[in-house]
Amino acid sequence: MGTTQLESVQEPKYWHLKTVLSEALDSDFAVGEILPNERDLAARFGVARATLRQALEQLELEGRLQRRRGVGTTVAPPRVGVAVSTDQREWADGVGSEAWQPLDSTMAKAPAPVAAMLGTDPADPVHVVRRIRNTQGQAVAAELLYVPASSVPDLSAIEAPSGPVRARSVLRKLHRLGLQGQDRSVELGSARADDAKELDRLPGAPVLVVTTRYFTADGTAAVSVATYRADTCRLTFGDSGALEISHDEQSERQAS
Amino acid sequence: MGTTQLESVQEPKYWHLKTVLSEALDSDFAVGEILPNERDLAARFGVARATLRQALEQLELEGRLQRRRGVGTTVAPPRVGVAVSTDQREWADGVGSEAWQPLDSTMAKAPAPVAAMLGTDPADPVHVVRRIRNTQGQAVAAELLYVPASSVPDLSAIEAPSGPVRARSVLRKLHRLGLQGQDRSVELGSARADDAKELDRLPGAPVLVVTTRYFTADGTAAVSVATYRADTCRLTFGDSGALEISHDEQSERQAS
DNA sequence: GAGTGGTCTAGACCACACG
DNA sequence: GTGTGGTCTAGACCACTCT
Questions:
Q1: CATH of B13-75 given 3.90.660.20, 3.40.710.10, 1.10.10.10, 3.40.50.80
Q2: What is the DSSP letter of B150?
Q3: What tens digit of pLDDT does each residue of A63-114 get?
Q4: pLDDT at position B183 over 50
Q5: Which of A207, B86, B95, B246 shows the greatest Cβ crowding within 10 Å of its Cβ?
Q6: Optimal mutation site among B13, B118, B229, B253, interface A, most CBs of chain A within 10 A
């Protein structure tokens, strides 16, 4: 094209675009404001729509934008800090303070890695409790709690065999166990189809997978696999009586 | 095309492809093995290269693949568990057990959010110590440690003004402070150009950003912003004397 | 039905690694 | 130089939401 481009940088267009957009977002847009549509934006910047989309994808990954099919692209609010409890006392609290909402409980085979952590036979079915975590009216996480039958013996068959009622009764039994410790890991993943639906995202959306192993004196009592929306969440770990201090400041620190 | 597709699923091609590839990886490929190139793969599956790439990108995000320009696509080893220390004692240890390698130390203005956490004026320069973390011969994280001058008073100007020597002297001074607690958060980000270089990734690569605030009785003594490679790392948090148990099992649990 | 973002195509050229 | 993944284009059609 034009020869006016002395800036023959070795920087990809989408990367440069992302920077420009990011700055525009800071200065010219308010949270919740809706951006021009992708075709217009692409035209305005003189790039193909695919290139523009590559920039938008990055910004969405960083929690700066929110895109919804059929609606548009909006400026995202700062990520919400979500406390990943280190607190022993309410590890499986069905009505816990942190708004975990039990959906149902079924018996199913645990995935191989989970079975390995539980120390159970991969072929043995375990209780699988499904929960959703809400924060500020938004679903931020979906969890599968794997509980070996041995952790919750004599769970009466009289009670509802599934549904929230059943889930709560499993959690209640679990809650009575003395928790000795836990073991946690965080990694990047992509949302399975069912998780995506609960989280109001498309399948494959980036999520932070928090795997927690709860153990008692007898060994591993349960394993939780919680998937948090990576676009909207910042996981916080309170280590030492650290109060939930308000860093309302955006945690934006990426982009070159 | 053909009408043989009774499977007129509403599933995107790239998603289905990803599933197929994922299964193929499990059964037909060994770790480190090199895949056919993208053009061949795309042809083999009868899709455009862009579509094939969308599937590969997802698999790379999930830590199943590793792609390197000019080289090829290989099967990635399971993610390494990287301990994010909750240990007070060696929080700023220059020669710590966890292989943090100090690179240099400079004076610079901290980003606004960091300055807010430090409680310093955003215009005031602070010490910025740059460190790299190696695990199993691989760079897994790059860190910027922001230390207000007030935390390390009387740092002699006689010592090297920059470089690893300087970095170590800042860390040494810091290490002598009594640490009272820390406060940590984890979120998804994308690698800045300089981080990407240290981590042997392209700019924009997904990273887990671990922000740690170290505080003493006097307030916040330092803030660390560490970016971990999201593709190869699983962050582990030992909560309760929990030994670094070997879950050699892959932590693959995504994909529908 | 109109407008949005999501998927897909079939090309092209570029930057990089390696022999 | 050759082959790889990375970027980019200019289209097309689809799925969804809103009115």
A1: 1.10.10.10
A2: G
A3: 999 999 999 999 999 999 999 876 655 565 544 556 788 999 999 999 999 9
A4: yes
A5: A207
A6: B253
